[in-house]
Amino acid sequence: MSDLIQTISVPVDPPYEALIGPGLLHSCGARIAQALGGACRAAVVTDSAVAPLYLSAVESSLADVGFSVCSHVFKAGEGSKNLVTLSALLEFLAEERLTRTDCVIALGGGVCGDMAGFAAGVYLRGIRCVQLPTTLLAAVDSSVGGKTAVDLRAGKNLAGVFLQPSAVLCDTRCLATLPPAALADGAAAAIKTGVLSGEELFGLWEHGDPLAQPEEMIARCVAHKAAVVAADPFDTGVRRTLNLGHTAGHAIETCSGYAVSHGHAVAAGLAIIARASARLGWSEAALPARIEAVLRRSDLPITSAFSARELAEAALADKKRTGGDITLVIPEAVGRCTLKKLPVTQLSAVFAAGLEG
Ligand code: NAD
Question: Which of 15, 38, 317, 324 is deepest in the core (most CB within 10 A)?
C-alpha cells in the first residue's frame, strides 16, 4: 500500500511535505507527530458532514500516539466561512487552553482548511496547523500553499493570513464518499492546474481517467502548486497565475450568493476567460474548445447566466484590483499563462467577449 503514497516536498521556509495516498487518515497520528517533532495538544477542526465519516478515525490515531485531542465541528458549507464561525472557533481554542506549542488539525474540504488555517494563524499570533484534505478540491489545491481566508459581505476571501501548514496528509480513500458535484468541483481546480502546468497534466484530463487512480494526478497538481508557492510564497508575482479563472469565478460565486460552488464557478470562469482571450487575440484560437471539452467531460459548466456587467461589478469589489487597474490571468496556451493588467473600465467588455456562445 505504501507504494501508492506519493510525497511532494513544498520548499518554503520552513519546508514541509504533502503525502498523498490511500488510508493515510488511519496512520495520521504517527505521521503528524513525526512532522511536528512529537505529540502535543491537538484541536481537530471539521464540519458537520465530515465529522460522522472521519473524525473518530483521526481522533483515535492521534490519541494512540500520545496527542491530547479536542474537536470542534462547524456547520458544513461555504455559508460558514465567515467571521462568526471563526470567532466561535477561536473561543474554542482558548477555552481548550491550546498553547503556542500545540496545533490545529483541519479535517475537511477547502472551507474547513481555510477556517482552521486562519484560526491557527491568528490564535496566540500563530500556532501550527496540519491539513487533512477530504475533498478533491482541497487535495489538489487549497490544502497546500498556506493561504487562508474567510468571506466578508463585500466578497470572497477578503480577510485572511498566510500560514504554511506543518504537513499535509491527503487520504485518497476520502474521495469515495464525495457527492458527484463535489468531485466535479475538485476536477475544476485540477483542470485549471493542468492549463497552468502543461500538456502532461492537462492530457490526463483530456484523454485519460485521472480519477481511476487519483494519486498521480493529485501529486502532479500539488507539485505544480508547490513550485509556484516556493517561488512566490506571499502572492505578489507568479503565484497570482493560480487565480486563473477566478476573476469571473469569484464574481459568479458572489452574484449567486454562493449558491454556485467555488469549483463550478471557477470552471465557468476558466471557460469565460479562455473564450475572451481567444476572441481578443491574446491566446491560441483552439484553446477554448479544448478547455470546454475537458470541463464538459467532468459535468462542469462552461458559462454563466449573469450578465457581463453584473460580473464586472461583482469582480471590481474583489481584492485583486489595484487602483484603476485589474490583473487578469490570460491562458495563452496549455502550459503558458500570463498576467495582464487592464483598466477596470475594460473588464465588462472582456467578460462580454467570454460570455458570447
Ligand atoms: P467544502 O469544504 O465546502 O466541501 C464541500 C462539501 O463536501 C461540504 O459539504 C463538506 O462537508 C463535504 N465533504 C468534504 N469532504 C467530504 C467527503 N470526503 N465525503 C463527503 N462529503 C465531504 O468545499 P471545497 O470545494 O472543498 O472547498 C471550497 C473552498 O476552498 C472555497 O471556500 C474556496 O474559496 C477555498 N479555496 C481555498 C484555496 C486556498 O488556497 N486557500 C484554494 C482554492 C479554494
Answer: 317
> Ligand 1: distance of its center to the CA of 134 in Å?
8
- Strands 41-47 and 321-322, by their bridges, are unpaired
Determine how β-strand 155-159 pairs with β-strand 150-152.
antiparallel
pTM strictly above 0.85: yes
* Domain residue ranges in the chain: 2-178, 181-355
Ligand 1 centroid to 169 CA: how many Å? 15
Give the fold, CATH level 3, of 2-178: Rossmann fold (3.40.50)
Phi-psi region of 345 (alpha: psi -120 to 50; beta: other; left: phi over 0): alpha
Taking the CB of residue 216, how many other CB atoms lie within 10 A of it?
16
Residues 209-233: tens digit of each pLDDT: 999 989 999 999 999 999 999 999 9
Q: What is the pLDDT of residues 175-208, one digit of tens each?
A: 999 999 999 999 999 999 999 999 999 999 999 9
Please enumerate in sequence order all residues whose Cβ is within 8 A of that of 108, keeping only pairs 6 or more positions apart, or say none. Answer: 45, 46, 47, 50, 76, 116, 132, 133, 134, 135, 138
Q: Which CATH architecture has domain 181-355?
A: Up-down Bundle (1.20)
Grid cell in block for residue 69: 485531542
Cα three-residue angle 220-225-227, rounded to 5 degrees:
95
- Separation of alpha carbons 115 and 8, rounded Å: 24
Q: What backbone phi and psi angles, to 5 degrees, belong to 151? A: -85, 145
What residue ranges line ligand 1, CB within 6 angstroms? 47, 49-50, 53, 76-78, 81, 108-112, 114, 134-135, 137-138, 141-142, 145, 147-148, 156-157, 174, 177-178, 182, 185, 262-263
Instruction: Specify which residues 152 forms β-bridges with.
Output: 155
Q: What is the dihedral of CA 67, 71, 76, 80, to 10 degrees?
A: -110
